[in-house]
Amino acid sequence: MKIVIAGGSGFIGQKLTNFFVDEGHDVIILSRKEKKGTGNIRYVQWLQEGATPELAINTADAFINLAGVSINAGRWNVEHQRQIYDSRMTATDELLRIISALQTKPSVLINASAIGIYPAAENTVYTEDNTAIANDFLAQTVADWEKKATLVASEGARAVFMRFGVVLGKGDGALPPMVLPYKLFAGGKVGSGRQWLSWIHIDDVVQAIAFAITNENLQGPVNTTAPFPQRMDDFGKTIGSVLHRPHWFPVPGLVMKLALGKKSTLVLEGQHVLPKKLLDNGFDFKFPTLESALRHILLEDV
Predict the structure, then answer these.
(1) What would the pLDDT profile of 260-292 be if each residue is shown by its tens digit?
(2) How far apart are CA 136 and CA 280, in angstroms?
């Protein structure tokens, strides 16, 4: 296949690119800077004055949209929130324009999304059948992002919204800062510890995206989380167990709020999310349990 990736230089994008190349596919990475490609990887400039990526792409089987300012970088002040929101809207608008200009349209647009669209709750279990939307900045950003990406249907393409949970991987993503206190023998309960953490191994993210490209039954929201979420306290205990470190040093919620501001909600609040659509369509998780995922990431050479 010929696959176009926006946001190909990020944590998930790099893993995806390597996977698709290993599978023998051609990958086009949309980049703000001109770069020289290698092998099956080609870079095409976009979001710059005078750039015409549609001419370089010509045809494509699938588009993957991972573009946008990271929600993990910096404090959620007004300016950073604006950048998070605008970067996603701008990139998606441009992807829709590119697709509209192509003579041969892709069959699918895989659009990044997030489980942060669901309201934080300790006792509610969310599947894709649940239409509740939280009343906060992140949820509104996700909802507007998905709504915009839906417009690709007018070009005859299937739209899939991969609602990512907390993606765990080696050297990047959310896991390293979560593991660091345990390596320093200072790990423990964060906040109440009862908040849910719906996680997924980076390898399963890659496989789920590839699965969504070829599985025509998947469209709309797709919860991209492991089938066994954990409460935050249990998550920390599992890290401690895998690393043979104590789980004893509690971090009060007030401390997290002072340190992270509004972004502390990512740590102090959570959702119990299940990947119903993936499971119903026969997706096989390589790392369904947290212990298996952490042992692979933290103890093996990956």
Answers:
(1) 888 788 889 999 999 999 999 999 999 999 999
(2) 30
CB atoms within 10 A of CB 80: 18
Cα separation, 224 vs 218, in Å, equals 12
CATH of domain 2-299: 3.40.50.720
Give CA separation, 79 vs 69, 82, 85, 87, 261, in Å: 12, 5, 10, 12, 14
Using an 8 Å Cβ cutoff, are 194 and 257 in contact? no
Question: At residue 139, does pLDDT exceed 80?
Answer: yes
- Judged by DSSP in three states, 120 sits in coil
| Cβ-count burial 163-179 (b if 16+ within 10 Å, e if not) | bbbbbbbeeebbbeebb
The 3 state secondary structure assigned to 243-282 is HCCCCCCCECHHHHHHHHHHHHHHHHCCCEECCHHHHHCC
Residue 125 is encoded by which pair of tokens? 């279990």
Confidence of residue 302 (pLDDT cuts 50, 70, 90): low
Decide: 94 and 143 in contact? Cβ < 8 Å.
Answer: no
Total number of residues shown for the chain: 302
Q: Pick from 111, 100, 80, 81: which is nearest to 6 by CA?
A: 111
pLDDT average, residue stretch 96-122: 96
* Alpha carbons 106 and 6: distance in angstroms, whole number: 14
Q: 């894709």: which residue's tokens?
A: 128
User: Amino acid letter at 70?
Assistant: S
